[in-house]
Amino acid sequence: MHIMTDSSITSLDKDKARHQWLEQQVQHLLIATEHELRARGPLGLSELDLIRALQGERWQLLGEVNFTEPDQLYPVHFLLFHTLYRLRDQLAETNETLLISPLRLTLLPVAQRPETTLPASEDKLRAFYLDLSQYFMSNGDIQDMMDNFWAGLPPERPDMDDAALAAETLGFEALPETFTAVKQGFRRQIMRAHPDRGGSTEEVQKLNEAFSVLKAHYA
């Protein structure tokens, strides 16, 4: 029989306290996120817009984020998407659904839900984000995940609406014919948005998100 030591009890207490704190945060985020989504209506908002709203004076639920540092961005991104998937499950009970992607978060009646979703990939993403233990991923694991992505392991192919929105974010009027054109447009926009030229790290993050969507689209 395993005997519990003082140190193991302390460790369990700390884990319990951390998860209780996280759950409390999620409950606040569920209320605020649903409010913001309903306020935006069918146009929805981006992940970045939602982060800004939750940082704002009304809610003050998120602190400042350095969008260029993955180890600082990941906990905020994860907690937000955990909340979004929880909210989507709740909304299903009222015949509503939530379209989830970094570039567009939209609350819709179930009847208006597009038929282009990929159940297998959705299940994997949902399982990942609903596992709160993933919030505590180490900096090394976060970096490995980022390295795997840039090495050519992007998420599943986005739908055409998300791809078109990403192209618009990078300054295109329509989807370019080649990924080479996307990379050229991305470089131009990144140079323009650099903080040294009057841009901001938030704008750079939005461009990075758009580029990642198009990278998956052309993969």
Automatic annotation (TrEMBL):
Transmembrane segments: none annotated. InterPro entries: DnaJ-related_N, J_dom_sf. The keyword Chaperone applies. Keywords: Chaperone. Residues 35-152 form the DnaJ-related protein N-terminal domain. Coiled coil: none annotated. Gene3D superfamilies: DnaJ domain. It holds the Pfam family DNAJ_related. This is DNA-J related protein. It comes from Marinobacter persicus. The lineage of its organism: Bacteria, Pseudomonadati, Pseudomonadota, Gammaproteobacteria, Pseudomonadales.
